[in-house]
From TrEMBL:
Keywords: Disulfide bond, Glycoprotein, Immunoglobulin domain, Ion channel, Ion transport, Membrane, Signal, Transmembrane, Transmembrane helix, Transport. It comes from the Eukaryota. This is Sodium channel subunit beta-4. The lineage of its organism: Eukaryota, Metazoa, Chordata, Craniata, Vertebrata. GO terms for molecular function: sodium channel regulator activity; transmembrane transporter binding. The chain crosses the membrane at residues 140-161. Residues 1-18 form the signal peptide. It comes from Leptosomus discolor (Madagascar cuckoo roller). GO terms for cellular component: voltage-gated sodium channel complex.
Length: 206
């Protein structure tokens, strides 16, 4: 049973609008709404439909087979088919002309394949219409990066100075220890004797 289940999934109809499902367009410009479909067993009399905000049909087409291009069934006058299904990809993208602010919204690409027991699948893309494209101001970002970089640089410099100072202090202390050891050695071996004067024995009485 699991093998049959995997086999069934392999033949499933898939519809895609690309890596991102959002598109931005300038007011009064033309915008491409991408859509492709895949099917492992091919298609026959396939039907595809584009909807605006789930209810308004803006393009309706049919494709007899892989050897033929789609033919128009119905469309909005401002929508033009720009895809191709005889090439490598089954491209059913459309071009929306002279977009207006009222065109902003959800566009759904729906596909139905009778050869797969009328399997259906769809993908959605969201269109945003703007008056002008806003250039990203990177000044603030550059300032933040500069400040952070400067702080890291100062921290590294501080750590290096600290290491040098500690090294010098350690060397100075080591030098003092050597002096103390040598001087204490001189005290205990005064006049070449093994110990101090206090430790020397008194001469024997007569």
């Amino acid at each position: 049973l699991p093998a049959l289940h995997v086999f069934a999934i392999a033949f499933a109809l898939e519809v895609s609008v690309g890596k991102t499902n959002t598109v931005m367009a300038l007011n009064n410009s033309d915008v491409l709404l991408p859509c492709t479909f895949t099917t492992c067993i091919g298609f026959q009399d396939l039907v595809f439909t584009w909807y605006f905000n789930s209810t308004e049909m803006i393009y309706h087409g049919k494709i007899k087979s892989k050897a033929s291009e789609p033919f128009l069934v119905g469309r909005n006058p401002r929508v033009e088919f720009v895809g191709s299904t005889t090439g490598k990809d089954n491209n059913i993208s459309i071009l929306l002309k002279n977009v207006e602010f009222s065109d902003a919204g959800k566009y759904t690409c729906h596909v139905k394949n009778p050869k797969e027991k009328n399997a259906q699948h769809n993908a959605t893309i969201f269109l945003t219409v703007v008056q002008k494209m806003v250039e990203t101001d990177n000044t603030v970002t550059l300032i933040i990066v500069g400040v952070v970089g400067g702080l890291i640089g100062l921290l590294i410099l501080f750590m290096l100075i600290k290491r040098v100072v500690l090294f010098i202090v350690k060397k100075t202390q080591d030098g003092k220890k050597e002096c103390l050891v040598s001087s204490s050695g001189n005290d205990n071996t005064e006049n070449g004797l093994a110990g101090s004067k206090a430790e020397q024995k008194a001469p024997p009485k007569a």
